[in-house]
Amino acid sequence: MSSLSLAVRDSTTMLRRNLLHARRYPSMTLNLLLTPVMLLLLFVYIFGDAMSAGLGGGADRSDYIAYLLPGLLLMTVGSTTIGTAVSVSNDMTEGIIARFRTMAIHRSSVLVGHVIGSVAQCLMSVVLVGAVGVAIGFRSTDATVLEWLAAFGLVTLFALALTWIAVGMGLVSPNAEAASNNAMPLIFLPLISSTFVPLHSMPGWFQPVAEYQPFTPAIETLRGLLLGTEIGHNGWLAVAWCVGLAVLGYFWSTSKFNGDPK
C-alpha cells in the first residue's frame, strides 16, 4: 500500500476508536453541550426582554433569539473541543500512545483521528443547539441556499481550527484536569465577544478586547449569513483567524507529539 493509503486506513481506524469512546462515555459531551443550551434558555427566557432593549429599534424577545443563536453556535464549538483536549491528554498519560508507537501504524493517524472525530462531534452539537433555537423561535427566512452552505463551511472551518488548538492543549497538559483547565478560554472568549450584546453597547475601553479576538468576527459573519445583516470586513477576518489558528495548532500539536517520548 502507498503511504497515503496507509495514512487514510490508520486515520479511519483511529477515528472509529475515538467515536466509540465518545459513545461509551457520553457524560462529558453531554455536560459540555448543556452549557450553551442552558445559556440559550437563560438569556432568552430570563434576560430576553431586558437584553433585547440593548439592540435598539424596538427589538423584542424574538429579535434577541435571532441575535443570540449564531454566537451560541460557535460557543458550542468551543465547549465541545474541551472534550478533545481531555481525550488527547488521557491518551498521552495512560500509556496507549507509547503502545501505538511500537505498532506499524502511520504516526499522524492518532492526531488526525482525534481531529476528525472532534469536528464531527462539534457539528452534531451545533445541529442540536440549533434545533433547540428553532424550537424556541429562531428563524432564518432571508438566508439563501448559498448562504446556508457558507455558514456550514464557516462553522466547520472554525471547528477544525479550535480542534487543533485543543489537541495542542491536551498534549502539553500533564493530566485530564489540567487539559480541561487549559482549554477553558475556548468557553471564556465567547463571553467577552459580541455573542450576547453588540460591541457598541460595551464600554469604550473594552470594545477592542471584544473586537480583536477570533470569536467576534466569526460570530458577526455567521450572523450576517443567517440573518442578512452587514458582514463587512468580518468575513475575511474570520477566515484568516480560522486558517491561522488551524496552522498554528497543527504545527504545535505535531511538533509536540513527535517530540514527546510518553
Could you characterize what this model shows?
It is a single chain. The protein is mostly helical and 262 residues long. The chain is 76% helix and 0% strand. α7 runs parallel beside α12 (234-259). The longest helix is centred in the first third of the chain and has 33 residues, at 61-93. The two termini are 29 Å apart. The model has no long low-confidence stretch (mean pLDDT 85).
Can you lay out the helices and strands and say which pair or pack?
Elements (H helix, E strand, L loop, with lengths): L2 H22 L2 H19 L2 H5 L8 H33 L2 H6 L7 H27 L9 H28 L3 H7 L2 H7 L15 H5 L3 H13 L6 H26 L3
What structural category arises from helix and sheet content? mainly alpha
Spell the H/E element sequence. HHHHHHHHHHHH
Biggest sheet descriptor = none
Shape: elongated
Write down the Rg: 19 Å
Characteristic key phrases:
single chain; 262 residues; mainly alpha; 12 helices; 76% helix; elongated
Summarize the structure.
The protein has 262 residues and is mostly helical. The protein is 76% helix and 0% strand.
